[in-house]
Specification:
alpha+beta, Rossmann fold, 23% strand, 10 helices, 2 domains, five-stranded antiparallel β-sheet, disordered N terminus
């Protein structure tokens, strides 16, 4: 299950939101006179002084060409005064409105860069849902940077027990960037790198890596922005705790599945912890999830992905992408049974988790994915009934399912992926199972 939603039509949203409204909550004031940046927890009012009005830094790296795309590695000097704001993710939010002067800017993620031309500006961040209704007023601005030279990453690997097997690189979009280059570094050498698609500029705040990271070692990743003319407009992002991680093995607990295991939900990615169910389990669980997977795809990557970490216990949560795509239940249980048999061969204890249901009304409203077939509930029931017959299983159905057999509306934002509250149910159910079976 991928977390990429259809592009937000910014022009339409801006025309809808560009109206007069009362500033009932206090704005955050930024004085752009003489300092570069400030970071603070739960910042209410920030007075930031500007040190330099222009970005004149240059990169010392060599120019090179990749994927037939000419690259000038020297960021272009600019006279635009830019401010970068960041804030924490708000549960149930799908976008954020940044208001200043007589303008509104929409951000699909937890930060924004804005070009401004005055020395004194006031900003207000408001969290919105899919209906553009206010979820939270006066969202605290956590950091303010003036004329940032490099892209700011938003991954939170330092808050995870283990890094996910399938990395998602996430960042705050740069004001002048049309696309991005990403590189993964291990032991000082570039292990792999990618380019985002210039055609999807409004969605360029994350990138899903389809290749697993299975080798032990120290890693970090970086990103930089390019103009449509293939000229670097930022430096590489700085190495920090959030974009650095260590791969170790073996692991005692691991979990395999689709995006519900992988994590994320609309405005946050699996690189952030808010909507990862592993966050809400007090025991460290290695995340082997991959967004978009069917049970067949999970089976196909079992040997490479699971055996690499030799877990003693493997939590298996899969099937949603099967029944929402029209696969019959027996197809799913045949694949799950093969996973069970492979676990038995390698001495792994398989613990199956019942897949979450869907909320078709929200899916139809949001239109981020196609509507499921009419018989999806029957196919899901077939999978759940099979799971309940296994030696080890966790049944979360009663907690997440409403009277009509759908995923509770308050547990999902898009009708498909459980939100933070939904992920808490899963994570705590796994924790309860571990505690109960460790006696």
């Amino acid at each position: 299950m991928t977390l990429k939603i259809i592009p937000i039509i910014f022009a339409g949203i801006l025309s809808l939101l560009n109206v007069q409204f009362k500033h009932d909550a206090p704005f955050q004031k930024i004085n752009l006179e003489s300092q570069t940046s400030i970071d603070a927890q739960n910042l209410k009012v920030s007075d930031v002084k500007l040190a330099a009005l222009t970005n004149t830094s240059t990169s010392t790296e060599n120019s090179y060409s990749v994927n037939a795309r000419p690259i000038d590695a020297t960021p272009v000097e600019t006279d635009i005064r830019t401010v970068r704001l960041t804030w924490s993710a708000v549960p149930y939010a799908v976008r954020y409105r940044i208001s200043y002067a007589d303008q509104n800017v929409i951000s699909p993620t937890t930060g924004v860069e804005i070009g401004i031309n005055v020395a004194d500006e006031i900003f207000k961040v408001t969290a919105l849902n899919f209906d553009n209704e206010v979820v939270a007023e006066d969202v605290p601005i956590l950091s303010t940077e003036i004329n940032p030279k490099s892209v700011r990453t938003t991954s939170e690997f330092d808050k995870m027990s283990y890094p996910p097997l399938y990395l998602v690189y996430s960042w705050i979009p740069a004001n002048d960037a049309a696309y991005y280059e990403i590189r993964l570094i291990k032991d000082g050498e570039v292990l792999r790198h990618f380019f985002t698609d210039i055609k999807n500029k409004n969605e360029n705040f994350d990138f899903y890596d389809d290749n697993p990271v299975t080798e032990s070692g120290e890693y970090y990743w970086q990103v930089r922005g390019f103009s449509a003319d293939d000229v670097a407009v930022t430096d590489w992002s700085e190495k920090n705790a959030g974009n650095s991680f260590t791969v170790t093995k073996p692991t005692h607990f691991a979990a395999i599945g689709d995006s519900i295991t992988h994590g994320g939900s609309v405005t946050v990615t699996p690189a952030q912890v808010l909507c990862n169910w592993e966050t809400y389990c007090s025991f460290p669980v290695k995340n082997l999830g991959r967004s978009g997977d069917t049970t067949g795809q999970i089976l196909a990557r079992f040997d490479e992905d699971v055996l690499a970490f030799q877990p003693e216990v493997l939590f298996i949560m899969a099937g949603v992408n099967d029944f929402r795509s029209g696969y019959i239940g027996s197809y799913s249980t045949d694949n799950l049974n093969e996973i069970l048999e492979r676990c038995e061969v390698y001495g792994i204890k398989p613990v199956f988790i019942t897949p979450t249901p869907l909320n078709p009304a929200l899916i139809n409203k949001v239109k981020s994915v196609r509507m499921p077939p009419n018989d999806w509930r029957e196919q899901r029931k077939y999978i759940c009934d099979w799971i309940r017959k296994q030696k080890y299983f966790i049944d979360i159905s009663d907690e997440v399912t409403d009277a009509e057999g759908n995923l509770h509306a308050y547990l999902t934002t898009d009708g498909l992926h459980p939100n933070a509250e939904g992920k808490k149910i899963i994570g705590r159910a796994v924790e309860d199972w571990i505690i109960a079976n460790s006696k």
